[in-house]
Structures are given as structure tokens and as C-alpha cells.
Amino acid sequence: MSALARSPLLTLPQQKSSYTAASGVQRGRALTPQNRAMAGFTGFDRVLRRYGGIATRRELLAAGWTETEFWFALRYRNLDRIRQGWYAASDLPTDARAAWRAGGPLACVSALRHYGLLPDEEGAESVVGGTLHICLPAGGRVGRDAPEGLVVHWSTADRYSGTRQAVSPEVALRQARACARQAGLTR
After folding, report:
1. Rounded distance, CA 160 to CA 135, Å?
2. pLDDT in tens, the chain (187 residues)
3. Burial of 133 (0-12, 13-18, 19+ CB in 10 A)
4. DSSP H helical segments within the chain, as ranges?
5. CA 140 to CA 135: how far, in whole Å?
6. Under DSSP, is residue 38 helix (H, G, I), strand (E, B) or coil?
């Protein structure tokens, strides 16, 4: 049976004959509480939140989604592709979304601003000029959608120090000090 025929999104009312209440099986898929909760597109956001709002295609498929459901979610814009192979929850903050479109998580003053440790208006603009700071591992790639003036902090250890949205606050503070020194703002 094809993945299209097994998809709970495509189960039409006239197909109820394929459901057997006694066996608890519908179109070849067990009706577990997890499968019932994932029916419809809202299940993607729940899975994405488990991964901090950002997940790979492989992670979403491993969570129980079929290729057909994945295709429909993309087609009807219920799933946001932020980078090749990476997808975001609908409520992902815009700064983290911009960082991932550029290549990776927020870093330096962008991460500090994300955590609320640096005010948006005062001081932040003078340190970074309003540019986006991201962190990439050695061998990482900057995305095609990277904004002008993007600052990349290259460090594999820093990249995996925090969440998928931003490096840890401690790492971000260290990076901000280094950026300030490079800009000649401190000694």
C-alpha cells in the first residue's frame, strides 16, 4: 500500500470502511495516542518544539510523518523551510529564523539580544552596527540568504554550546568581548 493511501490527512469520510474499531488499525497504521495527536498539520509544531523550534527533515520523518504528509505540509505552507533540510516551527522568533536562513544559530551580541541580556536600542547598534551574528562549525556553509554585513563566528564547540536557536549566554558574552576588542571599543 502506498504512503499516499496510508496518510491520515487523506482519509476521507467515505473510506471509513477501512477502519476496524476492534483491531484499532486504520489504513495500515496503528491508532496509537501518538498517531492521533499527530493527525493534521499541528503535529509538526509539537515535534519541532521538542527540537527547540528547528528540526531536520530526517528528525521529522523519524517522528512518524510520511513523505506525503511532509509534502502536503510544505505545499500548504504549514511547515516553514528555513534552509535546505531544516524546518522551523511557526512561532520561531524572527531573529533565530534569520540566523538559520544565513546558516546557523545566533551568536555574539545577536544571541545576547535574543536572551534579553542586551537591550535592542541602546548600545547594541554601536557594537554591531545592527548586523546579524551567527555561529558555524568548522566546515560549515553560509546560506545564500545571508544578509549583508553578516558576522560569522567559526567554532564547532561554540556552535553546539546552547540551543538550536542561539549559542549559550556564556559563549555569546565571550564572543561579544572579542568582537568589541576587534572593533577597538575595548582593550
Report:
1. 9
2. 455 445 444 443 343 333 333 333 334 444 344 543 444 556 677 888 888 899 999 998 898 888 888 888 888 877 889 998 999 988 899 999 999 999 999 999 999 999 999 887 554 444 455 789 999 999 999 988 889 899 999 999 999 999 999 999 999 999 999 999 988 777 6
3. buried
4. 3-6, 33-38, 42-50, 57-62, 67-75, 94-102, 108-114, 124-128, 156-159, 169-182
5. 9
6. helix
Please report the sign of the dihedral spanned by the C-alpha atoms of residue 173, residue 178, residue 183, residue 187.
positive
Q: Is 26 exposed, middle or buried (CB count within 10 Å of its CB: 0-12, 13-18, 19+)?
A: buried
Element holding 135 (H helix, E strand) = strand 133-136
Cell numbers placing 186: 575595548
